[in-house]
């Protein structure tokens, strides 16, 4: 079992124990262990072999035994017994965001709901809204969550798709004669969700590469296999296509299959007016029927009289017109990033020590890293109280002295409470190098209350950044109901930076929000929300989404030299 699967079982156990009325500390123990395992940089199976299971924060003897059983057998007898003791369908109901143990029991016992279809029917018939302490708004939120679950079957979140494709590409890298291997489609454009997964390449011997592809360990089923193309289903259940062409046609192939559809339609129309026809093989002069071939995309766009257009902005939103005028802005690059504003350590719910997080940040080439562990209100995340904040401050100073020149900022991710107040008092907030404020609770508030709540936080002079502003989790939780236009305008007024959260499950702000915020002069930062040193690599997702929002380096505070960044952040 993977870490994600183990964490899911432990969270389900916590829910079931809560339904049974078990002591709160026991429920919290499973929740904490689940969070720790979900963010591990290594699989639990490896830690088991190394005898390090009990080194995981929150994992004691009892939970370690259960993890051992799951790794060895793929199931957990204790979990099966718990499920058997409760009404049929409870676990299914608990899989719907917004349905906790008490609501699940009420739906099961009072309405006889056992399946997602039962639930949707009960909502549409008004029976859920009629339950005690529910109402129309709660029922509507649950219906939105159900619809999100149904859409999950159609599109794959970027953070799930990219590792699968990268694993396949790694498996093919030593295949003889293979060149130019790269993802295509919406994955290459870094859309937040993708459909089927496409990989393009060129090869001296296509048959050999295709055979390498279909026999990879990651392949569960071969759907189709030809001389230059094959389609497989991976062990994760995703469909992946590999397509190969001659080296001389790779630029045309990659451009064609990267899309977007609207971008390619607009290109074809412009080409038609010039007597040209575009295809995956090249550009054909209609009058002579002669085809030109392009080994690179840059050559392909140049033949159309255009500047090269980065994949992330190929959405037919003005990029073609600017490319014709050679006026596209230089988009932010990973090499521009000088630091990370949102990082957790094992002082709260992170896996690694401050020293480990700083070491990886320094190896990455960063000038600074901000440790932003949770405030005390996040009990499940082992949030810091005032005493532990003071202790952590001393630890950070000690680590920075031996960190080889990287600056280590002492920050905090502070909860924005339901009434808009913050989890720490102003006198403590004023002493942090950086304050990141975020909503983690009461997400069902109506638009006016949620908007006012975040604005109240932005008007606090000590708040520097609002993290993951819409609180969404791709494929799992819809964004909160909030007036983003008003948020952008107040952020620009107060100088509060808004975060582009690079956690692949969030990507929040999304691309269209980033574009609008940038237009209004809002300060933007990219934060990985890392809970382990390995997750500092998530920065690439955040930068890609920033590029989709047409950000240049100057739009992102992470790209500024340290002293200039500090002034801009606190201005």
Polypeptide structure, described:
With 571 residues, this protein is of the alpha/beta class. It folds into four domains: 3-152, Orthogonal Bundle (DNA polymerase, domain 1), CATH 1.10.150; 156-245, Beta Polymerase, domain 2; 260-324, 2-Layer Sandwich (Beta Polymerase, domain 3), CATH 3.30.210; 334-570, Alpha-Beta Barrel (TIM Barrel). The protein has 24 helices and 17 strands. The chain has a seven-stranded parallel β-sheet, covered by helices on one side. It has a five-stranded mixed β-sheet with strand order 2-4-7-6-5, with helices on both faces. A three-stranded antiparallel β-sheet has the order 8-9-10. Strand 14 (434-438), helix 20 and strand 15 form a beta-alpha-beta unit. It is globular. The mean pLDDT is 91.
Query: Cα distance, first to last residue?
Result: 48 Å
Overall domain count: 4
Label the structural class: alpha/beta
At CATH level 2, the architecture of the largest domain is Alpha-Beta Barrel
Could you name the CATH topology of the largest domain? TIM Barrel
Q: What's the helical proportion of residues?
A: 40-55%
The major β-sheet equals:
7 strands, parallel
Query: Which homologous superfamily in CATH is the superfamily of the largest domain?
Result: Metal-dependent hydrolases
| Rg, Cα atoms, Å | 25 Å
Note the beta-strand portion: 5-15%
Query: Mean pLDDT score, rounded?
Result: 91
User: In what order do the strands lie side by side in the largest sheet?
Assistant: 11-12-13-14-15-16-17
CATH class of the largest domain: Alpha Beta
> Per the principal axes of the C-alpha atoms, what is the gross shape?
globular
DSSP E strands, number: 17
Give start-end ranges of low-pLDDT stretches. Answer: none
Number of helices: 24
